[in-house]
TrEMBL record:
PROSITE patterns xref list: ARGINASE_1, ARGINASE_2
Protein name, entry field: SpeB arginase/agmatinase/formimionoglutamate hydrolase SpeB
Keyword Hydrolase: yes
Source species of the chain: Marivita lacus
GO molecular function: hydrolase activity
Length: 319
């Protein structure tokens, strides 16, 4: 197998132009030919406290280069698997963002996700605040119903407040209204947030399964994965504030008591084995609060490993 070293360049991770995992840049969204397409959604006007997630796509892209060594895949000795050796990833760049205009910015994000779906690739959208999940889910209109796995500190189930329906406290509520969303599992939810008691009651009434970090840990990652409806396609939305601020400080609304790396990684591995994954977003990385870059590195590492799990499962199961 070629490792690329014979091409005349070593191409170490700190060299070159920065795309996600230094994958090819595909600015023409009408000719996507890949297994995975990365889309940046640098919109943070939906935040209710510290802004800064607009720089999330840049931060995560830059951190992702750490995982771009040209070793023809990533060998994991614990799993005895070489991940991502044949997965074609392209980076579409960012959706155009119109400052102060949530509707148009969200529409531009939805256009990108639609283009990815039409090309038959897996959409992976890097936010941006969690409101960017709304156009991501909108772009699945007409799709077979799917379940949402949300990994987050906050329930994000506010219906409307002061006329705001599309901020970063609303996305799971908006998703629950879509006929193509069959239900959701919301994991990592803890502490105070913009969602009040009635939001939890509404979520449960619509069939949500809500687990805190402590409840998820008590069950273990495999048992949590088994709570998702077997056979359902799954869309995964990861808010980086699901993680403990001690490992992920670079986010607008940190919440102590969060997950550590393997809590989430093992959950994702079990879910990827059991379900077809139809889309992913990872949101709320705000590099300005991330002095060591550990938050962006965590985000990139989670995404790369998740993609590895998904395409390894596809290879194994021929789906
Ligand atoms: Mn969130």
């Amino acid at each position: 197998m070629s490792h690329g070293y014979d091409a005349g360049r070593l191409n170490l991770p700190f060299t070159g132009i920065c795309t996600f995992a230094r994958s090819p840049y595909q600015p023409d969204w009408s000719t996507i030919d890949a297994d995975v397409a990365i889309l940046g959604a640098p919109f943070d006007a939906g935040t209710q406290w510290r802004a800064g997630a607009r720089f999330g796509p840049r931060g995560v892209r830059e951190a992702s280069t750490l995982f771009s060594f040209g070793h023809a895949g990533a060998y994991d000795h614990e799993d005895d698997v070489t991940y991502l050796f044949n997965t074609r990833i392209v980076d579409l760049g960012d959706a155009d963002i119109i400052h102060t205009d949530t509707a148009q910015s969200h529409a531009n994000i939805a256009s990108g996700v639609r283009a990815i779906r039409e090309a038959g690739a897996l959409p992976v959208v890097i936010g941006g605040d969690h409101s960017i999940n709304i156009p991501c889910i909108d772009a699945f209109e007409g799709a077979d119903p799917f379940h949402i796995l949300q990994i987050d500190a906050h329930l994000d189930f506010v219906d409307e407040r002061h006329g705001v329906r599309n901020g970063h406290g609303n996305p799971m509520r908006r998703a629950s209204e879509k006929p193509w969303v069959s239900g959701m599992t919301q994991v990592g939810i803890r502490n105070v947030s913009s969602t009040a008691r009635e939001g939890y009651e509404d979520a449960r009434a619509r069939g949500s399964d809500i687990l805190s970090v402590r409840q998820a840990r008590a069950l273990g990652p495999e048992a949590v994965a088994h709570r998702l409806p077997l056979g359902a396609p799954v869309y995964i939305t990861i808010d980086i504030d699901a993680f403990c601020p001690s490992i992920a400080p670079g986010t607008g609304t940190p919440s102590h008591g969060g997950f550590l790396y393997y809590d989430v990684l093992e959950l994702l591995q079990h879910v990827a084995r059991r379900h077809k994954i139809v889309g992913i977003d990872l949101v709320e990385v705000a590099p300005d609060y991330d002095p060591t870059g550990s938050t962006s590195i965590l985000a990139a590492q989670v995404l790369m490993n998740l993609l590895g799990f998904i395409f390894h499962a596809k290879d194994q199961q021929g789906r």
